[in-house]
């Protein structure tokens, strides 16, 4: 049993990293910060509780979503899918908004064409 302390430390470090990198929305039972404190101050018991009770279901190796459920990252946060993001519920309002966007784009193109003609391009 000389390596028991080393195994507990490895488990503790793994669980600390796992808690820190876990998806906030997937953590079970108590908030992520509470889990971090439990694992931090109760290394063996907190780690075992985290793995058995708090870890997100379907979490990848570091507590995030597994690779089959990974969210697309477009490089533009406003276009990424996020929990709580407002989703349009009225198709007519969507169609009207898109129509207004297209009309504004056409107006901007028309103004630019007229400016280029006036400048002699």
Largest beta-sheet characterization: none
Using the CA coordinates, give the radius of gyration: 25 Å
User: Unreliable segments (pLDDT under 50, ≥5 consecutive)?
Assistant: none
Structural class: mainly alpha
Order of helices and strands: HHHH
Topology:
Elements: H1 4-21, H2 32-41, H3 43-54, H4 91-119
Structural commentary:
The chain has 121 residues and is mainly α. Helix content is 57%, strand content 0%. The chain has four helices and no strands. Helix 2 (32-41) runs antiparallel to helix 3 (43-54). It is elongated and about 85 Å long. The chain starts with a helix and ends with a helix.
Quick summary of this structure?
57% of the residues lie in helices and 0% in strands.
